[in-house]
């Protein structure tokens, strides 16, 4: 049976650590949509450089429908990261498209509702346009890179082992990059030891500025110094999120208003002995829309329209 990897922790390059034979297990979440009911479950596995999963890929699994959370992964049927990069696996070559496919798959089975992320400005495209405009050194081309996958290390918080441990991706890491040169399709590159400076990250999901050799597409240099500071990226991310959330709220509000106006035009619904499911759903949708409206006059007008259409709105909605 095939399963879609929805999420997976980074593989650990020092899986056996602290010289005590302990291993670090990572979380893997999958979606199977082959029967009457989709299966959406998670389980921990030993994730290392030989057991490396990336969201968006499909993997062979063995699963008992009666105990889905105990599913097993057929690791022999999962190609190595080297093989997948050599084949230019689309999930690695274009992780942005892979993430969109995961979101669409979850929405299709009702696991997740439509995300406001779709309404956010595409900063990656902005960076790609900038790369097309800016000059590059002789023999190089400007590009934008995205980290498709990266290893991590278990780091002990205290030398004596007290206080637990956490993961770090700083330092020299085995990394898969998705590289896009303006005007060309993205492709995957395996970097055996990419230096990842501490405190540098693409939190805005806009991509990393890079240079690519004109003669060797695998010769990629990340321009960390050109990456915006993390706090600046966080501020931009928050601003984008608020704008997208407000836009989605306005779209939802307008959709509800349109439905109400159509219902008013058709006249009040006939009297019913009891509320049906459709009425309940309309009432719930109305309340959700009202929570998004801050203008008291607009709220009052909408409540009046709902009631005129036969949709019951409790006084606490006022």
Features:
alpha+beta, 3 domains, five-stranded antiparallel β-sheet, 7 helices, 31% helix, globular
Structure description:
The chain has helices spanning 81-86, 90-93, 95-108, 123-133, 230-266, 277-291, 296-308, and strands at 2-8, 16-17, 22-23, 25-32, 39-46, 58-64, 67-73, 140-150, 153-156, 165-168, 171-180, 187-196, 208-213, 220-222. It has 318 residues and is α+β, with helices and mostly antiparallel strands. It has three domains: 2-114, no CATH class; 119-227, no CATH class; 233-317, no CATH class. The strands form four sheets. The chain has a five-stranded antiparallel beta sheet. A hairpin with a 4-residue loop joins strand 2 and strand 3 (22-23). The longest helix has 37 residues, at 230-266. The chain is globular. The protein starts with a strand and ends in a 10-residue tail after the last helix. The model is unreliable at 271-279 (pLDDT under 50).
Encode the helix/strand succession as letters. Answer: EEEEEEEHHHHEEEEEEEHHH
- Distance between the amino and carboxyl termini: 52 Å
Number of helices: 7
Low-confidence stretches: 271-279
Strand order of the largest sheet: 5-4-1-6-7
User: β content, as a range?
Assistant: 25-35%
Shape: globular
Q: Tally the beta strands.
A: 14
The assigned structural class equals alpha+beta
Average pLDDT reading: 78
Largest sheet: 5 strands, antiparallel
Number of domains: 3
Helix content range of the residues, please? 25-40%
């Amino acid at each position: 049976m095939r399963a879609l990897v929805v999420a997976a922790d980074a593989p650990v390059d020092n899986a056996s650590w602290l010289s005590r034979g302990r291993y670090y297990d990572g979380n893997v979440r999958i979606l199977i949509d082959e029967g009457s009911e989709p299966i959406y479950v998670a389980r921990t596995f030993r994730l290392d450089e030989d057991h490396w999963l990336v969201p968006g890929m499909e993997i062979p699994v063995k699963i008992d429908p009666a105990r889905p959370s105990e599913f097993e992964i057929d690791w022999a049927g999962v190609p190595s990261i080297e093989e997948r990069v050599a084949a230019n696996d689309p999930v690695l070559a274009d992780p942005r498209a892979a993430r969109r496919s995961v979101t669409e798959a979850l929405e299709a089975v009702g696991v997740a509702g439509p995300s406001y992320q779709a309404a956010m400005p595409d900063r990656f495209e902005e960076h790609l346009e900038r790369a097309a405009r800016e000059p590059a050194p002789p023999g190089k081309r400007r590009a934008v890179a995205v980290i498709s996958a990266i290893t991590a290390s278990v780091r002990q918080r205290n030398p004596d082992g007290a206080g637990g441990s956490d993961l770090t991706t700083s330092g020299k890491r085995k990394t898969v990059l998705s590289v896009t040169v303006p005007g060309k399709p993205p492709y995957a590159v395996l970097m055996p030891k990419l230096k990842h400076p501490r405190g540098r990250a693409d939190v805005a999901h806009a991509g990393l500025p890079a240079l690519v050799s004109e003669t060797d597409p695998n010769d990629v240099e990340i321009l960390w110094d050109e990456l915006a500071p993390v706090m600046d990226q966080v501020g931009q991310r928050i601003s984008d999120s608020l704008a997208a959330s407000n836009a989605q709220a306005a779209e939802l509000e307008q959709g509800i208003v349109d439905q109400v106006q159509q219902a008013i035009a058709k006249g009040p619904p006939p009297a019913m002995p009891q509320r049906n499911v459709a009425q309940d759903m309309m009432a719930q949708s109305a309340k959700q829309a009202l929570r998004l409206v801050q203008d008291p006059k607009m709220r009052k007008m909408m409540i009046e329209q709902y009631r005129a259409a036969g949709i019951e709105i409790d006084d606490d909605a006022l």
